[in-house]
């Protein structure tokens, strides 16, 4: 075979294998046997080995390729991967429509409905028509590069189809869901049984775990599937219905279980239909998603917090089960809160085995009359958090025992107090081991210092050996301190020390959140950071000054004031400072005061979120929608419809270089 003949044969084999892959994995049709398809793949692989110069990224043989990765690099999403607000009743759906109707009163709303697959959200980027990057959702803003693992999923195209009127050579970003069918889940668990290994809990967790394996061959062995529903790049789509059609034309697998709905009544009918039929689906779903169909209305409605106003997840009724309460134990939180936890006879609920459920507080136990030894109904609220619904009193034998909140902390023996008017009892000993443990876990969490590799088991070992007493001690550790710990080698010890050292500086908002002040979540921390600018000003602020911060009420202000009034906490901050731990100051300036910016398209020098943060730090306002009040529209690469709207409204449009120059002036 000559080189020319080999090249022609390889191209024909690629086209044929991809054709049958698309039929089988996307259209659910089959024209040749699995054995015949395997034979074609084998011939292709052999030819590519003999003529490596003709091996291309879109070859079917590249779905499992390369050595296992050493780790995942971080990927900043061009636009956030949003979380949806949940609804659990028809009244909540009507209330949702009522809220958005008030924002666009003159518009007739129509919707697009689709099932909410219990899967794993991903983002794909195509460059020049080829799959260039695949990433996880992460925290919505930064995910992990799992491209090699996603390439193993046969329903994901390595190369986009050519579509008339669409430039597939441009950068195209799409989003969807990776999932595992119940049939495949059962197959994997049968293999676990044969290997005398424990069962996996549910398909969703197994799918997510498969994508986060460092060896792509493991992901390939799990036979994952995908559906795509969101076209991020503007390819001329006007509605969500358009997005699904374009995605299908490009070669993506889209759900057949979708419906255009002219009104909310149709959405509710769709929900009722699938409530009784979801068990017949080959994969797990936990609800449906209702989306305002018009993309223009979507942009006008915008977001509230971290969730879009234009979409809502209407959850199916939670699956319930009955089980016995073996005991009620106490858990201690980072603020000293004593939380009663029901220890249950293990039971399968909504696809996973449940053995513990929070009882919230003593009043809740009394209200529901839950006793040790009771038979109870449990459910996973929103199919996520296990909770006890009620006790079945008719099944009592008389041997059941009442629960009493302890007067002393079960961990440290400290006094338990319950402030007047509060439902939660707390350990008064701030030096309690359990409180310190939870505070350290909180400190290293993703929204705080994000120190990877420091899991709960490692923290427990460090505390047990008295290597640390608080979070400040983490920054005094050396690799030699870690090597004697269980399962630690020289390399793994060095990696954790490097991770700790590289996270000594965070933003002021993250630093405030990491302190673990009661009632101060990540959003409140950001408000405090923006208002005061540094920690010293917060420390010296009066309750009245704290209340001046938007979103900070009397209770939160008092908690912050009291926290900084505790000498132990001030000593803790000093220890962090002495260890070289701190925050990066972003002093607010006023060069952009009175100006409103809208960014559209991709910026090469920074992510959109970074640009918006700079605008706010310089006194300007960053908006998500173009209006007559917009000062500038910053047009990056592949600008969307905001660019056209700016032209229509006569808003000044600047490119990225002009924007950067404006920041420097």
TrEMBL record:
Give the UniProt record's GO annotations in the biological process aspect: DNA repair; DNA replication
Where does the BRCT domain lie? 587-665
Please verify whether the record's keywords include DNA damage: yes
- Residue positions annotated to bind Zn(2+) are 409, 412, 432
Q: What is its EC number?
A: 6.5.1.2
Q: Supply one GO molecular-function term.
A: DNA ligase (NAD+) activity
Q: Which reaction does it catalyse?
A: NAD(+) + (deoxyribonucleotide)n-3'-hydroxyl + 5'-phospho-(deoxyribonucleotide)m = (deoxyribonucleotide)n+m + AMP + beta-nicotinamide D-nucleotide
Q: Where are the active-site residues found?
A: 116
Write out the residues that bind NAD(+): 83-84, 114, 137, 177, 315
Tell me if Glycoprotein is a UniProt keyword of this record. no
GO cellular component, alphabetical, reads: cytosol
Q: Which cofactor does it need?
A: Mg(2+); Mn(2+)
Identify the InterPro entries for this entry: BRCT_dom, BRCT_dom_sf, DisA/LigA_HHH, DNA_ligase, DNA_ligase_CS, DNAligase_adenylation, DNAligase_N, Hlx-hairpin-Hlx_DNA-bd_motif
Alphabetized, the UniProt keywords read: DNA damage, DNA repair, DNA replication, Ligase, Magnesium, Manganese, Metal-binding, NAD, Zinc
Q: What does this protein do?
A: DNA ligase that catalyzes the formation of phosphodiester linkages between 5'-phosphoryl and 3'-hydroxyl groups in double-stranded DNA using NAD as a coenzyme and as the energy source for the reaction. It is essential for DNA replication and repair of damaged DNA.
* Family of this protein: Belongs to the NAD-dependent DNA ligase family. LigA subfamily.
This protein is called: DNA ligase
Q: Which organism's genome codes for this protein? A: candidate division CPR2 bacterium GW2011_GWC1_41_48
Q: Gene name on record? A: ligA
């Amino acid at each position: 075979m000559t080189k020319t003949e080999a090249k022609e044969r390889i191209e024909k084999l690629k086209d044929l294998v991809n054709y049958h892959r698309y039929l089988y994995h996307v259209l659910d049709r089959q024209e040749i046997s699995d054995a015949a398809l395997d034979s074609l793949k084998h011939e292709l692989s052999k030819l590519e080995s003999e003529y490596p110069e003709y091996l291309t990224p879109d070859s079917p043989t590249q779905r499992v390729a390369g050595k296992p990765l050493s780790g995942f690099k971080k990927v900043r999403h061009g636009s956030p991967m949003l979380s949806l607000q949940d609804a659990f009743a028809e009244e909540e759906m009507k209330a949702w429509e009522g809220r958005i109707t008030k924002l666009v009163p003159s518009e007739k709303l129509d919707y697009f409905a689709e099932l909410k697959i219990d899967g794993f959200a991903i983002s794909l980027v195509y460059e020049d028509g080829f799959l260039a990057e695949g990433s996880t959702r992460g925290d919505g803003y930064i995910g992990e590069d799992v491209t090699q693992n996603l390439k193993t999923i046969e329903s994901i195209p390595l190369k986009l189809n050519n579509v008339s009127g669409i430039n597939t050579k441009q950068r195209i970003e799409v989003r969807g869901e990776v999932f595992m069918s119940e049939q495949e889940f059962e197959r994997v668990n049968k293999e676990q049984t044969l290997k005398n290994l424990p069962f996996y809990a549910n398909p969703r967790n197994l799918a997510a775990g498969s994508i986060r394996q460092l060896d792509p061959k493991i992901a390939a062995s799990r036979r994952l599937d995908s559906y795509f529903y969101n076209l991020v790049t503007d390819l001329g789509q006007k509605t969500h219905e358009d997005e699904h059609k374009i995605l299908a034309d490009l070669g993506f697998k889209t759900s057949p279980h979708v419906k255009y709905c002219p009104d909310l009544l149709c959405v509710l009918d769709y929900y009722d239909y699938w409530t009784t039929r979801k068990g017949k689906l080959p994969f797990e779903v936990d609800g449906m998603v209702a989306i305002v169909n018009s993309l223009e209305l979507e942009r006008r409605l915008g977001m509230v917090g971290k969730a879009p106003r234009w979409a809502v997840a209407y959850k199916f009724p939670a699956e319930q089960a009955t089980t016995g309460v073996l005991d009620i134990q106490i858990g201690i939180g980072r603020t000293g809160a004593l939380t009663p936890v029901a220890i249950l006879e293990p039971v399968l609920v909504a696809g996973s085995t449940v053995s513990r459920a929070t009882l919230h507080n003593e009043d809740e136990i009394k209200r529901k009359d839950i006793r040790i030894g009771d038979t109870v109904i449990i459910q996973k609220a929103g199919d996520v958090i296990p909770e006890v619904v009620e006790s079945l009193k008719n099944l009592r034998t008389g041997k059941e025992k009442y629960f009493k909140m302890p007067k002393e902390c079960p961990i440290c023996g400290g006094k338990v107090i319950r402030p007047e008017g509060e439902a939660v009892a707390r350990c008064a000993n701030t030096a309690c081991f359990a409180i310190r443990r939870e505070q350290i876990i909180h400190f290293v969490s993703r929204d705080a210092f994000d120190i990877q590799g420091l899991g709960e088991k490692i923290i427990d070992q460090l505390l047990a050996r008295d290597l640390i007493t608080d979070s400040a001690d983490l920054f005094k550790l050396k690799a030699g301190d870690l090597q004697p710990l269980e399962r630690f080698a020289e390399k793994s010890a060095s990696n954790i020390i490097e991770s700790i050292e590289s996270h000594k500086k965070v933003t002021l908002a993250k630093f405030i959140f990491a302190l673990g002040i009661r009632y101060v979540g990540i959003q409140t921390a950001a408000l405090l950071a923006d208002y005061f600018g540094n920690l010293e000003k917060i420390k010296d602020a009066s309750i009245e000054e704290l209340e001046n911060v938007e979103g900070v009420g009397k209770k939160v202000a008092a908690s912050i004031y009291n926290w900084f009034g505790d000498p132990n906490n001030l000593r803790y901050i000093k220890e962090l400072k002495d260890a070289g731990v701190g925050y990066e100051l972003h002093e607010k300036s006023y060069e952009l005061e009175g100006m409103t910016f809208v960014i559209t398209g991709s910026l090469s020098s920074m992510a959109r979120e970074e640009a918006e943060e700079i605008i706010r730090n310089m006194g300007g306002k960053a908006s998500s929608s173009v209006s007559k009040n917009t000062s500038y529209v910053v047009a990056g690469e592949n600008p969307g419809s905001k660019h056209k709207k700016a032209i229509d409204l006569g808003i000044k449009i600047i490119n990225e270089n002009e924007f950067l120059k404006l920041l420097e002036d």
